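TODO from last week: model CBS domain protein.
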Amino acid sequence: MQVKDIMVAPPTIDKSAKISNALGIMEKKNTRRLLVMHNGEVTGILTMRGLAKELGTKKRTKPASSLPVVTAVTDNYTFVKPATKFAVAAKILKEKGGVLLVSENEKDVLGWITPNELIGAFDFGGQANDIMFGKTIITINSSERLVHARYLMLENNIGRIPVMEDGKLVGIISERDVAVAFQEFKDHVPDNHQEAQIKTLLVADVMTRNPLTAKPTTPAEKIVNCIVHKNIGIVPIVDDSEKLVGIITRRSLLLAIPTLD
């Protein structure tokens, strides 16, 4: 299998567009990434994590509607040829992260490959406990401040965190939750009140409650189907006593795909 067989058309935005427009496109297209272009050339990649980082920084007190996309763009992409083998593509994404831009000349983009395309094209066997992250699970309490959730995401390079109350899983907070919350906050709270009021934003206010969970013995393919086709970014794994014992994310699935040495 080659990347040309699984690539998809990337959603795009111009670098001069505003961050609020980018969030709207991401919501409409149900995506966490946009390919940023200008005058037909690639400028970079805009991610939901980048937006959460940019909107949450103290130096950005202006409304999201006034901030250009270019302030949050990253260069985390790699050009690959259409004939690049599946295993090679998986290895590149494992090592470099980001996305793969499919092009013959490193200018005209034919499509792109994200972890979702690789995961959706691979036949996973086994059970949840074969592919889950279980040794160190980063969690957060629902009573924590939203700025702390943002810090954990950026510090650990993760997009979603299980939310706990009294040792039990009660929800998930995502980088999208953080970005949207900060957008609304900065659009409605005056500059001179933001530093004090931002401390009142709590994880419980924006998290998603009652997340989909699975058992350690749940077939891996069933979980993969939810992540790929229902766009669920994380599936917490709980035991019979509902104790959190692991998580499955796109990252853990990507790492489970065999690659060439």
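Done. The chain has two domains: 3-121, 128-256.
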